[in-house]
Amino acid sequence: MNNLHIPPMSDPIKHECGIALLRLKQPLQYYVDKYGTAFYGLNKLHLLMEKQHNRGQDGAGVANIKFDMSPGERYISRYRSTNSKPIQDIFDYINDKFEKIGEENPENLKDVDYLKKNSGFTGELFLGHLRYGTFGRNSIESCHPFLRQNNWITRNLVVAGNFNLTNVDELFDVLLHVGQHPKEKSDTVTVLEKIGHFLDMENDEVYKELKPQGYSNAEIYSKIAERLDIEKILKRASEDWDGGYAMAGLLGHGDAFVLRDPSGIRPAFWYEDDEVCVVASERPVIQTAFNLKSEQINELQPGHALIMKKNGLIKETLINEPKIEAKCSFERIYFSRGSDVDIYNERKQLGKNLVPQIMESISNDLDNSVFSFIPNTAEVSFYGMIKGLEDHLNEEKIKAIVALGNDPSEKDIRKILLQRARIEKIAIKDAKLRTFITQDDSRDDLVAHVYDITYGSVNRGKDNLVIIDDSIVRGTTLKQSVLRILDRLEPKKILVVSSAPQIRYPDCYGIDMAKLGDFIAFEAAISLLHERNMIYVIESVYKKCKEQESLPKEQIKNYVQEIYAPFSNEEISEKISELLTPPSIKAHVEIIYQTVKNLHKACPGNTGDWYFTGNYPTNGGNKVVNKAFINWKEGKNERAY
After folding, report:
1. What is the predicted pLDDT for the residue at 512?
2. Which band of pLDDT confidence, cut at 50, 70 and 90, is reported for residue 637?
3. Which of 18, 342, 515, 575 is deepest in the core (most CB within 10 A)?
4. How much of the chain, in percent, has pLDDT values that exceed 90?
5. Beta bridge partners of residue 65, listed in sequence order
6. In this predicted model, what pLDDT tens digit does every residue of 321-366 receive, in sequence order?
7. Contact (Cβ atoms closer than 8 angstroms) between residue 340 and residue 356
8. What is the per-residue pLDDT across 182-240, written as a single tens digit (0 to 9) for each?
9. How many whole angstroms separate alpha carbon 389 and alpha carbon 393?
C-alpha cells in the first residue's frame, strides 16, 4: 500500500537544520546523586532534539565525548540515522545497550566508572544534530555530526552545524593549496577539514613551544589540551567563509565551541548554570528542557563564538567582526517553533498587519466574509488577523453608535455591538488518506480530496472566503488541490492571504529555495515582461549576469532585481492569482501578500529579507542569484551553488 503525500496549503519548504550541544559541568556522580540517573545528560539531549524535530526530519545524529579516559579506552561515541523517525531510532539504539547492562546487573546502571569504561554515550559532552537536506543524498554519510579522527586526542574533531556556504569552491581550492586531499567537495567536509587544518597547526605550534622546555611527549600532550587556543583556530578557519552558519564542534579531549556567522543569519541560543552549559537553535527548546524563563537565555551574538574549555571556563568571544545584522526573517514567519514568546507575538502581528489589504479586497464587507486558515502553521498569524479585524470593527462600531445621536434605541445599539468577524474551521486535513493508485492523473484527483471541508460554513454565491497561509513559494499545491477544494463551498470570492511577502530570489544560506524557476513570483514577472513586449529586459539581465560570471564575488551585483523593477507588488500579485487559478474554478480568486515594510514592522529584530528583496547580506549571495538566473535562462535545472 502506498502512502499518499498529504501537502499543506503552501508548498513545504525544507530548511535550516537544528543543533543541540550540552556540556555537563559537574562530575557524573553528581547527577546520579541529585537526579537518580547516570543518563541525565543523555535524557536532556533527547529532549533538546525532540523539541527541535521541526528543524529536520531527513536524518539525525549524536556524538559524545568522555573526559579523562585512559589510553586504549574509547572516548568518542557517535550514531547517526536516516530512519523515518531518526531521533527515536537513535535513542532506541543507545538505550538498548543500557537495557542489556541492566539485565546483567541493574546496579551497573548507576555505577559511573563502570558505564564510562563499558558503554558509549556516557560522557560529559554531547552534540546532537537534526538534518533537513537542502540537496544531495539522504544517506548516513550526509548526516552530522562529522568526525575527523586522529590518534592524538587533541586533534580529534567532531562538527555539526546549521549552515550553508556560498564559496565552497574557493575554500576547497585553499585546502588543495595547503596539500590536503578532501574526500568530497561539500561545505560540511570543507568546513571540517578547514577547522581541522588549523587545529593541527595549533597542536604543532604548542608542541614546538613546549618541546625545548624538557617535557616528555606525554606531558606535552597533556599541556596541549590546556593551552589550545580555540579562538585563534576559529579565526583562522572562518575568516573567508561566505554564508550563514551556526557551527558546533567538539574536540577529543573535551573543549567545545559554537560559532555564529557575522550577519547572524542562522540562529543560536545558550544558557549556563552550575550544572550545565547548553546551546540550541531555538530559545524555547532550552526553556522547556530546563524549565527556564526566556530572559535567562542568551542569544549568541553574530560573529561570536561560545567557547567551552574542558576545565569549565565558558566565554562568548568575538571571532569575526559583525556585519549589518540580517537575521533570517523566515525563522520568525515559518521555521522556528511558535512557542517562543517573541515569535508568537510577531506572527500575530504579521496577521494583523494584513488587515487593511484584506478589507480593501473584500470591499469592507465583513458581514459576507468568512475567515479561516490553512495549514496549521498559519494558525498564529490567523489569530493576529482576527484581532486586527476586531480592532477595525470596534472602530466602525464606535462611529456607528455616535451616529445614532443622543437617544439611540437598545435595538439599534444591540445590532451594532453584535457584529462579529465570521470565523470557521473550513478545511481539515485527512492525514490518513491512503491509496493503491500510482498513476499521476489518478493521484492528482485523490490529492484534491486530502482536505475535508466544512460544508454549510459559507453562503453559496454570496460570501467571500478569506484563507491565510504562512507563505506561497511555488503555488503548486494551491493550484492542484486547495483552491479546487475550497471552490466546492461555492463562495463568491476566494481570497488567499500570505503572511510572508512574495518570494522572488533564491536562498543560499540553508533554505531549500535555490532555483528561480520554482518561484511563482518569478514566473509572474516573466509572464508580465512577455505580455508587455519587454523581453529585452530578460535578455539584458542575462547579458549582464554572463559578463559577471568570472568576476570575484566581491565585484558582482544582483541584476535579477531588474526583472521585477518594472512592476508594482500589486501587479505581480494579480498575475500570480491568474497563474494559480485552475480553469475549473467558479469563484473569483485573488492572492495578496504581506509587504516587506509590514514584515519589518512585525519582526524588527530579524531583518534578513534577501529572498523577498534580493538584498543579500554576503557577496556570495549576489553570485548565487545571478548564477540561478543564468541556469534558468539556459534551461539548466540545477542549483546555483
Report:
1. 75
2. confident
3. 18
4. 78
5. 76, 125
6. 999 999 999 999 988 888 899 999 999 999 999 999 999 999 999 9
7. no
8. 666 566 778 889 999 999 999 999 999 999 998 988 889 889 999 999 999 999 999 99
9. 6
pLDDT digits (tens, 9 = 90+) for 53-81: 988 878 999 999 999 999 999 999 999 99
CA distance 89 to 96: 11
Cβ atoms of 145 and 160 within 8 Å: the answer is yes
Amino acid at 399: K
User: What was the pLDDT predicted at 531?
Assistant: 98
Mean pLDDT of the chain: 90
By CB neighbour count within 10 A (0-12 exposed, 13-18 middle, 19+ buried), where does 191 fall? buried
Are 230 and 238 contacting, i.e. CB atoms less than 8 angstroms apart? Answer: no
**Do the strands 451-453 and 427-429 form a parallel or antiparallel pair, or are they unpaired?**
antiparallel
The C-alpha angle 206, 209, 211, rounded to 5 degrees, equals 100
More confident residue, 131 or 34: 34
Nine-digit cell string for 158 = 567532531
- Cβ atoms of 344 and 380 within 8 Å: the answer is yes
Burial class (CB in 10 A: 0-12, 13-18, 19+), 318: middle
Phi-psi region of 617 (alpha: psi -120 to 50; beta: other; left: phi over 0): alpha
Spatial separation of the C-alpha atoms in residues 516 and 519, rounded to whole Å:
6
Rounded Cα gap, residues 288 and 140, in angstroms? 29
- CA separation for the pair 561, 521 (Å, rounded): 12
3-state secondary structure of 603: coil
CA–CA distance, 264 with 261 (Å, rounded to integer) = 5
Q: Is 397 exposed, middle or buried (0-12, 13-18, 19+ CB in 10 A)?
A: middle
Residue matched to cell numbers 507575538? 345
What is the b/e burial string over 505-522, where b = at least 16 CB atoms within 10 angstroms of the residue's CB?
bbbbbbbbbbbbbbbbbb
Over residues 562-588, the mean pLDDT reads 97
What b/e string do you get for 345-372 counting C-beta neighbours within 10 Å, with b at 16 or more? ebbbbbbbbbbebbbebbeeebebbbbb
Q: Is the pLDDT of residue 603 over 90?
A: yes
Give SS3 for 150.
Answer: coil
- In single-letter form, the type of residue at position 449 comes to H
Handedness of CA 563, 564, 567, 571 (dihedral sign): positive
Q: Are strands 314-318 and 369-373 parallel, antiparallel or unpaired?
A: unpaired
Report phi then psi at 429, rounded to 5: -70, 130
Cα–Cα distance for residue pair 549/487, rounded to 1 Å: 47
